[in-house]
Amino acid sequence: MCTVTCIASINIAVIKYWGKRDEVLILPVNDSISATLDTDHLHAKTTVMTSSTFKEDRIWLNGKEEEIKNPRLQNCLTQIRKRARNSNQWKVHICSENNFPTAAGLASSAAGYACLVVALAKLYQIEDDITSIARSGSGSACRSVMGGFVKWCMGSESNGADSIAKQIVPASHWPEMRILILVVNDTKKKISSSIGMKRTIETSDLMQHRIKHVLPNRIKIIEQAIIEKDFKTFAEHTIKDSNQMHAVCLDAYPPVVYMNDVSHTIINFVHAYNEAVNEVKVAYTFDAGPNATLYLLEESVPEFMGVLDHFFPPGINLEQYRKGLTFKEVINSQEL
Ligand code: ADP
Ligand code: DP6
Ligand code: CO
After folding, report:
1. Ligand 2 neighbours by CB, cut-off 6 Å
2. Are 8 and 115 in contact (CB under 8 A)?
3. What percentage of the chain exceeds 70 in pLDDT?
4. What is the pTM of this model?
5. How do strand 11-15 and strand 32-36 relate by DSSP bridges?
6. Cys bridge to 115: 8, 15, 138, 300, which one at CB 3.0-4.6 A?
7. What is the Å distance from ligand 2's center to 124 Cα?
8. Residue 199: CB partners within 8 Å, gap ≥ 6?
9. 10 CA distance to ligand 2 centroid (A)?
């Protein structure tokens, strides 16, 4: 029997992946950029095992057996076996746990598929790029294979060979960067990212404007801001990109709505704070759900947390407001 266990953490995009040009291979319509969180915090932990006694491939997620015939899982397994350097034909058993809510808009698919593919690659001794395999499980997963700031290049080949993720800078490049996640709601989302982005690309006119006229330039600007550690530029484009993703969602028909009243209260709060301190000190971004991720520098954390506690005091009678306060402080990303 051979066993490998790995941990991979979530990543939160500052330039959002939203829309596929190929649904099966999971090829995106734009480049995207994210930061991978420290593995101490929100992560998936996956053990993969092979044995001559196993009769079939099987997977357990958070203690419950899941369907192994899931096409995305099959994509990953097939590609791994094709590239395997050893001739292990034994069946595989996969056991994975997330230490945070699954399918709730907190990027479990990113951590989950990255972790699975990294563990399988170790088991099958694959040493070349595996981000394209992780991508075929869930697009955002290709960026969680690495730490630091990571860019997923959309690529141009029809087989997806060049649609891979690359590290822009390691976490150590910007050690002052902090990420706070304000959990507004951690229940399963009603419209999955896959369905939301499919509807957007099929029905939103604004989406064409985003892809053709906004993103090419924005990607260059934010990449440069990360390299130069220019927080103001980084924050402004992070905020604008989150708002544009949710604007194209709203432009879909029927509209795709992920943010709620608490999300909008957080947006107003961050803008009011930045105006009050006369500087862009905090950036927010929202994935396919109501939860906010804030990017800020270490020096801003104590004051910002004080103001947050003042305006969102613990004990407010609304469940979502209380949850809004249970933030997690994530130091920053690290290599796996
Ligand atoms: P999220 O916002 O959490 O990424 P998605 O709808 O994108 O939600 O993806 C959720 C799906 O990702 C799950 O239903 C499951 O199929 C897959 N997934 C999540 N965590 C894992 C994991 N640890 N291992 C394998 N697959 C996972
Ligand atoms: C809003 O990677 O979950 O988080 O490729 O269909 O599995 P699939 O979608 P997924 O979408 C993530 C969307 C996002 C933005 C991002 O992470 O870039
Ligand atoms: Co996801």
Report:
1. 13, 16-18, 26, 32, 107, 109-110, 138-140, 193-194, 287-288
2. yes
3. 93
4. 0.94
5. antiparallel
6. 8
7. 27
8. 191, 252, 253, 254, 256
9. 11
pLDDT one-digit tens code per residue, 307-335: 887 887 654 433 333 333 333 333 333 33
Q: Whose CA is nearest to atom 7 of ligand 1?
A: 109
Q: Is the peptide bond before 302 cis (omega within 30 degrees of 0)?
A: no
Count CB-CB contacts under 10 A for residue 253: 11
CA distance 45 to 8: 7
Contact 143, 32 (CB under 8 A): yes
Backbone phi and psi for residue 5, each to the nearest 5 degrees, phi listed first: -120, 135
ipTM above 0.90, yes or no: yes
Ligand 1 pocket residues where CB is under 6 Å: 44, 61, 96, 98, 102-110, 112-113, 116, 138, 192-193, 288
Show the tokens assigned to 48.
Answer: 């993969």
Task: Report how far residue 167's alpha carbon sits from residue 61's, in angstroms, rounded to the nearest whole number.
Answer: 28
Identity (one letter) of the amino acid at 206?
A: L
